[in-house]
Amino acid sequence: MGLTFTYFYNSPSYAGRAGDVLEDNPVGRLKVFVYELLRKYNKKILQKDPRCLTHMFAAEIFMHRFLLSSPVHTLNPDEADWFYTPVYTTSNLTPNGLPLPFKSPRMMRSAIQLISSNWPYWNRTEGADHFFIVPHDFGACFHYQEKKAIERGILPLLWRSTLVQTFGQRNHVCLKQGSITIPPYAPPQKMLGN
């Protein structure tokens, strides 16, 4: 069995597939295209209320920034393995600093409509090679009350996409199989106790 495993990963027909991540430098092969969206989906929201940089859902902002400066970022969508759509769905805050998720489904649908009508990449896989950061209380169900989140469910447009979210309760309507669960954002100054 060990011989078969070794042969499989070393066989020429396997070259260039997901097994490459087992090699020394997977970053050299992984490519992520970041859509350049209208400012209303991200930068304008951040400009309107900089408090969203320090709330627990700020992962969508910092992941966007990270990807733009990362060695996996590509400007050529034709060489991309993954596509990231930077929609800041948790950065619309109340005066008390709480996210307002009620506009999030409409905002997400609008962003997907924009990318699907201007680029061919969404349409060729129905978003299966796309990922979204959805750090709401109940992820892509976009509601902070569990009962209403369950009623709403995950936005159907996102069913084939990979969701990166802070919500990770197993066997829950709002946690899609294949989602990636990350911890909530914690500002470095709070982590250091300053």
Automatic annotation (TrEMBL):
Q: Which UniProt keywords apply?
A: Glycosyltransferase, Golgi apparatus, Signal-anchor, Transferase, Transmembrane
Q: Which organism is it from?
A: Platanthera zijinensis
Q: Which PANTHER family match?
A: BETA-1,4-XYLOSYLTRANSFERASE IRX10L-RELATED (PTHR11062:SF200), EXOSTOSIN HEPARAN SULFATE GLYCOSYLTRANSFERASE -RELATED (PTHR11062)
Q: Which family does it belong to?
A: Belongs to the glycosyltransferase 47 family.
Where does the Exostosin GT47 domain start and stop, copy by copy? 29-191
Q: What is this protein called?
A: Beta-1,4-xylosyltransferase IRX10L
**Gene Ontology, cellular component aspect:** Golgi membrane
UniProt GO molecular function:
1,4-beta-D-xylan synthase activity; glucuronoxylan glucuronosyltransferase activity
Q: How does it sit in the membrane?
A: Single-pass type II membrane protein
User: What is its subcellular localisation?
Assistant: Golgi apparatus membrane
